[in-house]
Amino acid sequence: MDFRFSEDQLSIQSIAREFAQKRIAPIAAAFDRSGEFPLETIREMGQLGLMGIEVAPEYGGAGMDTVAYALAMMEIAEADAAHSTIMSVNNSLFCNGILSYGSEEQKQKYVRAIASGEAIGAYALTEPQSGSDASNMHTRAARNANGDWVINGKKSWITSGPVAKYIVLFAITTPGIGAKGVSAFIIDTGRPGFHAGKTEPKLGIRASATCEIELNEYVCPAADLLGKEGKGFGIAMGVLDAGRIGIASQAVGIARAAYEASLVYVRERKAFGHAIGSFQMIQAKIADMKCRLDAATLLTLRAAFAKTEAARTGGRFSTEASIAKLYASETAMFVAHQAVQIHGGMGYSKEMPLERYFRDAKITEIYEGTSEIQRLVIARNESGVR
User: Which domain does 167 fall in, by range?
Assistant: First the structure.
């Protein structure tokens, strides 16, 4: 792995950092309190190329690699996890899915609007009765007399669901054969039969709108089948591998924010006549936080590098993505927890951002596959035993 970043990678990192600190950080707490979707700044991110970093210029994107994406995600997440969640879904789950499996017509029609920030994309796999068991879905799609698909069912915990224009959605097209009967579709939320439910009142990433969606006799044109019929489950899992790198990057950003805030606090806060950073118990926490943060960063960049190489060679990056996601998400929780401890009562107060980092960190251990699922993926890939 080459640890030297290219000029393009450093450029997008710098753009993301400047935007995050100047435009996102000052408004993050207010949007967390209100739960309002930050549409204005999301559109600005699209104009900067941050909503389609790995999308080729001919489809409206920045045309960069996964390492550039990871570096930019870390910067956005350090300022606000909610913005980075929206960015992650657009980049990793929506655009990546269509670029990897879609037709040329689908890329031109759907990717350009999302990559440019003109519209918001979403990804619908989870259902009320099936989270980690993604193959146990109830949403059904059947062909009508015209050859189009009529879809009925519910999906839950859909990030950006209330505001999305287009959604990559998975449904059973051949019942009774499990995962082999799943197909993928591109849903236009403006069509009849689509309904977005109430926005979920979440613990963290509150400005990232999440809801349940329902499709009732929704007619999806045959041209909007993504990939081949019956190949949807493989598409879902392949897209989630990419998504895990995005969430690992997000987790690193959250952890970095909590760590940097702690460094400032231990230098300024005094107890018993000394800066608390001089106390060995505090020093041990700082050392542990730094070690885990650096390890999570490197594992995430390794996964990003592996995905870039896989695109060139046709190889896999599933294990690297799961390792990065598992370690970075648990590091985010560890670092945020230690940061709250270091800040004491102030860490528990909404007057400081530590409690927000703590709340935001938790979701990174859950979505795009829980920590338990990541351990299964890693172990099965390593042992070959299913």
Answer: 122-229
